[in-house]
Amino acid sequence: MARLRRKSCIALFLFTLFIFGSLMGLRTLKPADGFMDLTPGLDFLPLIGGKLDRRSVARPPTAPAGQPRPGAPKSTKPPLSNTGPEGTLFYDVHIFYSTWYGAPQMDGKYIHWDHILVPHWDPKIASSYPRGRHMPPDDIGSSFYPELGAYSSRDPAVLESHMEQIGTSAAGVLVVSWYPPGLADDNGEPTEDLVPAVLDAAYRHNLKVTFHIQAYHGRNDQSVHDNVKYIIDRYGDHGAFYKFATSNGKSMPLFYIYDSYLTSPESWSELLSPTGAHSLRSSAYDSVFIGLIVEERHKHDILAAGFDGMYTYFASNGFSFGSSHHNWKGIKEFCDANNLLFIPSVGPGYIDTSIRPWNNHNTRNRVNGRYYETALQAALNVRPDMVTITSFNEWHEGTQIERAVPKKTVNKVYMDYQPHGPEHFLELTRTWVEQYSKEKEQWIM
């Protein structure tokens, strides 16, 4: 009898070991093996703790100019728009887009492609690295080289190509880096006057446009109040202007606020809380405002400030608390508990040593798309409300999914997407976005 019990225990132990080994094997599947490890069952409620729930269960596209806008959404299915070579766009996927590039044929000179080599803030370290600036068109401030060459963002042909490429990726919303009229980043020139052309080009391709308000000199809660009014008054009726449909049927503009932590939560609350001195809440300019989480404490600041959600922007896993994939589950739980949107940002890789030669430790190699798939899988694992892609064309930081080509000069060999073609990361994005849409339908249902 004792011998029989021993045999039974051994058999049970071996069976348990087999099951454990099988489960561990499934956990080690690479991202390319599938995105089916999620289960449906995410509930969306219009009110949580008496607070307006701005999380959307559907985002129908804004009606074209001159046509009536749709009413409250009746379906929980992600909206689709037939366009582009593959047929559909997904408006829960937003992609960061830069308009700061210039070339002689359109702008009289190269802009941004001739980026300076940024010195390290420590003079001792800075002395070990080269200084100066790039000399386009063969020497540009990027480790990759665009298929379109060192282009101008003002070139209509470039805009058309960009919209076509974004359509190929299936991302439905461009998030345009935005500075107020007359202002620009330290290495560029004002581009606000280009927004109408971007909106028109996006409209021709059924894409939508929203705004990434940059940390310009002098930005504060009052100036952002004025910025929001300016953008909505000027562009709010355009057919390509993005509106976010909340679960209670409201349709609202959405703004990403870059480096929001530079302004105190107390100041932001004057703009974003219902009782603020110049609050936009319950006004014609009320919108969905998304703050940037870099450090862990920022999630509490974003909540206290009155933001509606948070995004992570940076494409370098481990660079910050917010950009570290293993923190996304906890951030999502915090957002869910406090009725906030969580919008993780994913990117194909990161390399900015062409403009910050001392920053090699933050480089994230693309590994032929494996790094991107890992980030995409990490985002999908937390069942996000939306996803942002960093980026379509931030060439300086090597996060672009825009088409790139091999190029070799006397002094430099550019990186490329080989052994894949120039569209590899556009196509990879579409594959994942379609899977995300299928999964999200199940979560909502």
User: How many individual helices?
Assistant: 11
Number of strands: 13
**CATH architecture group name:** Alpha-Beta Barrel
What separation lies between the terminal Cα atoms?
53 Å
The largest sheet, given as strand count, sense and whether it forms a barrel, is: 9 strands, parallel
Q: Please state the structural category.
A: alpha/beta
Encode the helix/strand succession as letters: HEEEHHHEHEHEEEHEHEHEEHEH
CATH class: Alpha Beta
Helix content: 25-40%
Q: Taking all residues together, what is the mean pLDDT?
A: 86
The tally of structural domains comes to 1
CATH topology: TIM Barrel
Find the CATH superfamily.
Answer: Glycosidases
Strand order of the largest sheet: 11-10-9-8-5-4-3-13-12
Low-confidence stretches: 20-51, 57-86
Radius of gyration from CA coordinates: 23 Å
Specify the overall morphology.
globular
Strand content: 5-15%
SSE topology sketch:
Layout: H1 2-27, E1 47-48, E2 51-52, E3 90-97, H2 104-107, H3 123-126, H4 156-169, E4 171-178, H5 195-204, E5 208-213, H6 221-235, E6 244-245, E7 251-252, E8 254-257, H7 265-272, E9 288-292, H8 298-305, E10 309-311, H9 328-337, E11 341-343, E12 345-346, H10 370-381, E13 387-389, H11 424-444
Parallel strand pairs: 3-4, 3-13, 4-5, 5-8, 8-9, 9-10, 10-11, 12-13
Antiparallel strand pairs: 1-2, 6-7
Pfam family, one: Glyco_hydro_99
Region (Disordered): 56-84
Keywords: Golgi apparatus, Hydrolase, Membrane, Signal-anchor, Transmembrane, Transmembrane helix
